[in-house]
Amino acid sequence: MRKPTRRTETGRGERVLPGVWRLRLPLPWPGVPHCNAWALAWGHGLLLVDCGMDTPGSLRDLERALEQIGFELENVRLLVCTHAHVDHCGQATAVQARSGCELWIHPRHEHLTAALDDREGALARRIDVARRGGVPEGPLQAWAEGRRDQGTGMSGPLSVARDLVPGEVVESDAGGWEVHETPGHAPSHVVLHQPERRLLISGDHVLGRTSLYFDHGFTPDPVDEFLSSLELVDGLDVRLTLSGHGRPFTDLRGHVKANRELVQERLEAVVNALREHGEATAFALLPAVYGEKLSPETAAWLLTKMLCYLEHLEATGRVRRVQGEPQRWVAS
Length: 332
Ligand SMILES: [Zn+2]
Ligand SMILES: [Zn+2]
Fold this sequence. Notes:
By secondary structure, the protein is of the alpha/beta class. It has helices spanning 58-68, 86-89, 92-99, 110-117, 119-132, 137-149, 222-234, 252-277, 282-290, 296-315, and strands at residues 12-17, 20-29, 32-42, 45-49, 76-80, 102-105, 162-163, 169-170, 177-181, 190-194, 199-203, 240-243, 319-322, 328-331. 38% of the residues lie in helices and 22% in strands. The strands form 3 sheets. The protein has a 7-stranded mixed beta sheet. The protein has a 5-stranded mixed beta sheet with strand order 8-9-10-11-12. Strand 2 and strand 3 form a beta hairpin. The longest helix is centred in the C-terminal third of the chain and has 26 residues, at 252-277. The model has no long low-confidence stretch (mean pLDDT 94). Residues 83, 85, 185-186, 204 line the site of one zinc ion. The site of one zinc ion has 7 residues, from helix 2.
């Protein structure tokens, strides 16, 4: 999670298609100013897909966005979430409390919920991973202190009525939405496909602006899962994609291709950096691969991705680990 900034925007609702609205909700994260929830007409009420993060004033943002499209929270008949990241499911409990609706989400949400059940333990594990990844003690402690002061982004624990898995169909006036598992960005990630109208609700799996993130430490090879999940959506018939951040976009195939290319580019950059440096920790590789000025927040985010790339390269035989602490890597 990134460091909070002061909110300057409010929630906004806008029609994308008849019976399909984008609810743009502010986020307190630098570089990620908002997320989308999608409201879909369903009888006299709404199907809500994703619901934004819980922060001071965030429920009012969601209410305001709904008011702009002529609805209120009480009209939500069902909430489904594309994945268990706080910007997508954070307000679930608050929405349910107001509307009485059910929540459906994929069952592999422990990457979020286990950390909520044991916040200190989860933080200690992340610090341990970062330390083994070669993060120096000073920045590590500064980052950990910042994390302790933050809220969870959740309005309460998830109370799930149904597992959102393939075979389930989510109803709306636009037709039924088929569920496809797309792990990689998060183990719990799914996309929703409406085949007759050729619509895809893509969550964070494919965004308008190519931007990669993988949860580390819950599955053996998130990068490999992500590439398989790109293959899956590439096979769907889609005219318009409604993503978890940014504007709706056409040309899903072009976006899938751009994502694949960026993954390959990063993997090659990691191997090349190791060839140049000889042995290196994950942390030491960050400037060579990302070339960005690191802050404690971006370093935590980038280190997570770097560990996923290294483990993928290890699985494919291109890099290997060197004995010792912190963990060092070398090109094969
Ligand atoms: Zn996400
Ligand atoms: Zn997101």
